[in-house]
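haha ok so turns out i had the wrong file open the whole time. this is the CORRECT one, sorry everyone. sequence first:
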Amino acid sequence: VQLQASGGGLVRPGGSLRLSCAASGRIFTLNARGWYRQAPGKPRELVASITSDGTTTYADSVKGRFTISRDNTKKTMYLQMNSLKPEDTAVYYCNADVVYENVAGSPVAEVLLGQGTLVTVSS
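then structure:
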């Protein structure tokens, strides 16, 4: 089972992108935890998180511009990014609690960090 983020790309400063994250395989539940990003030469940082009751928190650098959300019925999480800046350029990763069926047919719970998607903000 893998988490896969998608929706990245090249966007001009001031533009918007919406990242999505879903899991492959037979998934029972996906509970979003947050989105991370890692810019070249910099450590990975948490940019947005969401709790089970829907409480969200954001890094100061993205507050007011990014919105984390989830759709439990679609087992998908999102990151809406508006007013993008060049310093938002990074690989973005999703993080979630996933319960899935393994090859033996048993449920397995894991915390997964997804494969990233590259966001490039440049004119």
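The mean pLDDT is 94.
again sry for the mixup
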